[in-house]
Task: structure prediction
Amino acid sequence: MNDRQGGSMNNRGALALLLALAGPVLAQAPRPPAAAPAWFTEARRLLEAGRAEEARAAIEGHLAQVPADADAFYLLGVVHERRRDAAAARAAYETALNHDPKLAEAHDRLGFLLGQAGKTEDAIAGFREAVHLKPSLFDAWYHLGATLWWTKQPAEALPALQAAVKLQPKHAEARFYLGLVLKQQGDLDGGVGHLREATRLAPDLAVAHNQLGAALLAWGDEEGAIASLRRAVQLDPSSTDAANNLGLALMQKGEADEAVETFRGLVQSAPDFRTARHNLGSALMQKGDLAAAVEVYRDLTRLDPANAEACYNLGLALKQKDDFAAAETALKRAIELDRALPDPPYTLAVVLWQTGRGREAVPFLREAIARKADYADAHYLLGTLLRQQGQADEALQEFRETLRHQPAAAEAWLGLGQMLQQRKDTEGAARAFAEADRLNKKKADAQASRVTLTAGLKKLAEKDAAGALAQFREAVRLDPQNARAHDQLGRALKAQGQAAEGDRHLAEARRLAPYLAPPAVGPAPP
Result:
């Protein structure tokens, strides 16, 4: 079951946002002299007052007297942009640069218009020239970074956006793009910090709330993600991306009913958004409504018969519904449609195994592994079937492969121990059995820790502080990796006046789960 996330903006949407957030800025007027001439002061005043035609007349009057004034042509370009005449603006900026090739602001605005026209390489060259000529020009750094991100060059976008944020730390959109780049580059902590700051600086910027929600979900903060995504949907009810991400966050938190309603609403409002249909089926399966999930996936296969993922998801839902014959048909179709997707042959092998056809399952498991060499589940099931069929050497190898890719697979350690025991390797078998026992105990302890944490929270709600503290201690003892248990224990200890021990547990909680730290303003780059 492949839940489809919308956390990454598509290129067209990203460019539209860049253009919407980055109109001509009068604050970036070129090199105003210490005592600005009258025409310059008047033209700026008129532009700031929204009187573009009068400003145009003032500038053209000056150009009639001084026809080679680059600054005047630059301001004329700004006037034409205000009048939404991109061709005239572009001509004005080009003329300005003919008179003064070192006019950084004209390089920036011309680059912006070139990007608007789809000439992104020329746009990037213009932005680069602008920042070379005037390193303090915020607009050019911002446009350069955002355009490089849009053209899928995040590594080059990063220093440009860092420079932009350093110049204007309170610019929400620059923070937004820097957060996106850091998230994409794998720095989730930094990405969340800048996205969170973008939403603080611009509380109504829906796309920032959406991307923050997606980042928080990847960070493990389901509650924070849901809150951010609800705000994004509230600010922009037409955003299919935000609504889809909200549904996925609800699913991850186990709120299947609300996720189903979210995806149903999305399908109704955007019938052609097929990602939402896929995720509706996934939510219905999580809810246990297999019949409804099957219908959703059948509709998808009717809408797009060549969609391998839809066929796979239909087969998975039918398998869960114990309709093995129909599942087999759908899964075989998915295998034919997509020769790279590993899940259809694996799931078909499971169906064949469950229906007593283990020998028929083996080639499909081999196919799944050929498509994805580190497919631990496929290696394990293949080892199990080969052992049942008396192929001990190959079975042993498959169990070892399983553990190479997934060392915490207790069932594979158990299978390996059984195989080694058959071969009279007593010491090896004992080590494998011991590791299986350790992993199973760790899993059971982690589950017990979650239950104990819940019990502690219940006692806390009942005002039983001592009982809550004891439960939180036990939860941490059972699973030292339980970040929420450390967090609650730290809070409880501090409430009891044990500040030093409380701080230690709070620090451990934040180390294990950074999202548990209080919101902090993302720093401007050094």
Remarks:
- The longest helix spans residues 426-461.
- The two ends are 43 Å apart (CA to CA).
